[in-house]
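Lab notebook: predicted structure, single chain.

Context: the supervisor wants predicted structures on file for every construct in the current expression panel, including those that have not yet been purified. This is the next one on the list. No modifications to the sequence; it matches the entry in the shared construct table.
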Amino acid sequence: MKPIFLVVFFLDLYCFSQNLDYKLTNISINTEQPHFGLMKIKSDKVLFTSYMLNKRGKVQLVGGNPVLTIYEGDLSERGEIINQRAIKIDDSANIPTITSATLSPNGEHLVITTLYTNKNKPKGNFKDTNFHLEIGTFQDGVGWTNFKVLPFCNPKYSYAHPAFSNDGKTLYFTANIRGGKATTKGGSDIFKVDVLGKGSFSEPINLGSNVNSYSREMFPCVGDDNALYFASNRPGYGGFDIYKCNMNEKGDFEKAEKLPKPLNSSKDDFSLIINTNNTSGFLVSKRLGGKGDDDIYYFMQD
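Prediction complete. Output recorded below exactly as produced.
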């Protein structure tokens, strides 16, 4: 291990192993509607999930149920997400709902979590409630379009919460794949595939016991230092807690460490993104005192 890497690695461990004081602020975009699925796509931009609004600013309903879609926002110096706007999806793409999404580092591909429709549903028996991942490209004047189901998605299982590595060569996601070396330990595990280019990917690889448990793992996100942040409902503070796995010099993830309070709470906490110095960032929480459902919080060292 190179000396400078050692310094950064151990400083990084130190930052989250101590009971540092963090100040959390419920940011202004939150309402009684849910705001979740936070994903940083550039140093100053994020994606997040919330209900689609119609032209009158009311929640869009289909069959009496609210429709989820993806918003983009800018990160302000004051710890807010501003200029939020729904990303443009081609109307003819026939996307019924989007529960989470990520953008490739080169900005060329959007990967979304969605449901099958009559247009692309698989043959044979499958659970119509199973989610899967689709990848699309952007076309001026049309929006994100040409969506295709990722080839490794087996309709017998459910796939969600995509997140690219910083170099775009790996795609992480949550799934409940059963059987073989990739089998899921709990209700859902975090997997990865190699992005091989030209629409091809490797077979899914389970990230193993350093990351996954016999509980549910969800919402992976990769930090600037290549550390993996994710949520798990294994025994902890309560509900889903946020964990961190550092990446070693071999490119493998070390044993998961639960982040301290107040980053975690007795309720669900997930979708953490953090700056390079581990001093501030954003997370999603359903902790007491929120404005409604899942809220986005800004945190910084006090």
